[in-house]
Design the sequence.
């Protein structure tokens, strides 16, 4: 809790305007700085921070009587050089002047150090600003969707009706058919979803990835979504590197032939293998659940063919269903249907 927050003169004037017009008070943002109030200067006269450093996030707000509480959060994500926070400001919308400094907090007597992003010590600060609001009709705030929620608030939210279809709708733009963080969660039923998600969210690795030190905080759904996009991007990067490393092995795309005719002939399948062989290596597949045209058995036949050309290749075949395997070399392409296979495993 941050005591000593002072409503500025412009903030007091705004209260009077809003009470008279019976309109809502809207908090727009929070910010921190490294400056100090000049000696003898009234903090209530401030119109901005003395040394602005960065914006924070409004995580939540509430109002009771003539006071409002605004929870602000500051993360070191993007901070390259550490600094000491000595001031904070709460901003609001004035119907005549636009955004104004509504309240100012002098933190010079109790400063907080913000470590850089690459430091493992502390990467998250949360303050609750308590400010006077007079008799304004209502209070609203611009909540940052990337803010964090406390474990207590998480439990309270869990008690509300949350159906997994709502989660699906919230993440409808997740890329492709990738197995995603949220996609995995959706395999669970309602409460199991939430409990599993919570358990996953507060692991040390997740906390480290999200630059959060306190273990009583869990990432919001928005942060999980962002993490998920990052993971997908990394997977795509790894796949690109993998393909580049293996680009010179001459491996051709897998081709599959699905047998549709129970009367298919052996020479038809053997011709298909030769016609689809691309030097130096081809991986082929014949799915035959219709007949016993290959090796007198049905099955899913995985085929590796390699050699400089179709008249000088070696073919290895494995039936995935039975585990049987065969090999042949020195093929006579003029004598389809009468190849002499060597059975390797039965």
Sequence:
């Amino acid at each position: 809790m941050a005591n000593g927050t002072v409503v500025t003169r412009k903030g007091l004037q705004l209260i009077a305007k809003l009470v008279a017009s019976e309109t809502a008070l809207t908090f727009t943002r929070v910010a921190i700085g490294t400056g100090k109030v000049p000696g003898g200067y009234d903090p209530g006269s401030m119109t901005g921070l003395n040394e602005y450093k960065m914006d924070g996030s409004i995580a939540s707000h509430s109002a009771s009587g003539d006071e409002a509480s605004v929870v602000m959060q500051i993360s070191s994500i993007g901070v390259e050089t550490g600094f000491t926070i000595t001031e904070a400001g709460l901003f609001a919308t004035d119907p005549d002047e636009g955004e104004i400094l509504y309240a100012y907090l002098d933190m010079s007597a109790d400063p907080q150090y913000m470590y850089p992003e690459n430091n493992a010590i502390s990467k998250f600060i949360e303050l609750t600003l308590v400010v006077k609001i007079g008799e304004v009709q209502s209070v609203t705030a611009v909540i940052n969707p990337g803010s964090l929620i406390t474990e207590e608030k998480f439990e309270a939210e869990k008690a509300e009706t949350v159906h997994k279809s709502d989660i699906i709708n919230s993440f409808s733009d997740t890329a492709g058919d990738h197995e995603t963080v949220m996609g995995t969660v959706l395999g669970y039923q309602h409460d199991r979803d939430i409990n599993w998600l919570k358990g996953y969210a507060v692991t040390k690795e997740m906390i480290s990835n999200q630059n959060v030190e306190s273990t009583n905080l869990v990432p919001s759904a928005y942060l999980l979504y962002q993490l998920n996009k990052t993971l997908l991007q990394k997977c795509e990067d790894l796949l690109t590197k993998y393909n580049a490393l293996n680009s010179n092995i001459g491996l051709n795309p897998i081709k599959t032939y699905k047998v549709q005719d129970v009367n298919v002939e052996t020479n038809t399948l053997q011709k298909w293998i030769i016609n689809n062989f691309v030097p130096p290596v081809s991986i082929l597949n014949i799915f035959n659940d219709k007949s016993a045209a290959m090796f007198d058995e049905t099955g899913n036949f995985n085929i590796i063919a390699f050699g400089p050309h179709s008249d000088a290749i070696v073919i290895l075949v494995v039936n995935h269903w039975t585990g049987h395997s065969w090999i042949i070399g020195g093929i006579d392409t003029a004598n389809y249907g009468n190849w002499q296979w060597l059975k390797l495993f039965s």
Observations:
- The chain has three domains: 6-147, 150-245, 251-345.
- Residues 316 and 327 are 4 Å apart (CA to CA).
- The chain has a mean pLDDT of 75.
